[in-house]
Structure prediction request, 137 residues.
Amino acid sequence: MSAAYVTRREHFSAAHRLHNPAWDEGKNERVFDKCNNAAGHGHNYILDVTVAGQIDPDTGYVIDVKLLSRIIHERVLDKVDHKHLNVDVDFMRGLNPTVENIAVGIWNELQPHIPAGKLYRIVLHETEKNSVEYMGE
Ligand SMILES: [Zn+2]
Prediction:
């Protein structure tokens, strides 16, 4: 059997505000700059989810990408698309929604629902220039 890595790309749009409630307004502005804007701002995120595993000799798949897409939609996209990450999203509650923290949150949402041990990496692109890769602890 051969191993392979399968990646599914999905998109979502969401708003957020970078803010640390333990700091005063001045420090929040200095550290987070425009991303501290009180009413928030939006991004069109691109999410790449990679699953690793052996190619099944019967199907020729590591994972059925239709199943992978459904898991991503149910566990992540339905919760974040067209939402405000600071207020609407259960798995981001109490976290500063940086692209790093969103990537970890998405990993934790997906991991229990991907067939055993197969979630390999997620890459979350916040802008054309900025992305975060997360591969678990
Ligand atoms: Zn932003």
About this structure: The helical segments are 25-32, 65-80, 99-110. The two ends are 28 Å apart (CA to CA).
